[in-house]
Amino acid sequence: MYNHDNVENIKEKFLNDNINNNYNDDNQLNNINYNISGRKSLNLEYSNNGEYNTLNESILISLKREFMRILYKLFYAIIPRFSANKDTNLKQWDLFGPLFFTIFLSYFLNASKDTEQMSKTFIIVFCLMWIGGSIVTINVILLGSHITLFQSLSILGYCIFPILLASMINYFFKNLFKFGIKVAIAFGAYIWCCFSSVSFMSDVLGQEKKGLGLFPIFLFYFAFTCYLLL
């Protein structure tokens, strides 16, 4: 016999199931849209391999990240004994820090001179840093090291910070220090630079060729030290 109540119950159950399924699908769609919009609102975009993409981040965040990276590498360059993994620090090179140090060093060496003299100083310091550093690197490579040009320039550039620090001290206290004290500060900075660079460069040189590879580095920093005392 035809039962009208059973048919109505079946229809109602069918409608409820469809409504629940549609509701779940809508929730999933809303969650997906929320995640996408949230990611866009935070400017977080990821590449296909899941790594964070920095192309669309703000300039302020990029500058802050690069500044902290320079400070991190500078700390391990001037205090190499705290560098737990020198190979990693060696491979992660950058030239932003050495470029800034070159500009500041050329400024403090002749800040009290006229504009023409400061221009000449910048050219000399720039050539000593980049051309002299390239010659030192070529010598190290010819001795059988696997270091690259940019890795070597990065190490030499970061390790020159003690000479920059000495130039700043001599500039701000030039009326208080006698020439003998300035010489002591300059050669103290020279020894610091040599110690920092040797701790890195000696690891990429063979034991029998270490002297031939390190001697040009000593001359490299000695040239800056002499120019600091002029």
Characterise the protein shown here.
With 230 residues, this protein is mainly alpha-helical. The protein has 2 domains: 4-52; 69-228, no CATH class. Helix content is 74%, strand content 2%. The protein is built from 9 helices and 2 strands; from the N terminus they run H-E-E-H-H-H-H-H-H-H-H. The chain has helices at residues 4-41, 59-78, 86-91, 96-109, 115-142, 149-158, 161-172, 179-201, 210-228, and strands at residues 45-46, 52-53. It has a two-stranded antiparallel ribbon. A hairpin with a 5-residue loop joins strand 1 (45-46) and strand 2. Helix 4 (96-109) packs across helix 5 (115-142). The longest helix has 38 residues, at 4-41. The chain is globular, with a radius of gyration of 31 Å. It starts with a helix and ends with a helix. Residues 23-50 have low confidence and may be disordered.
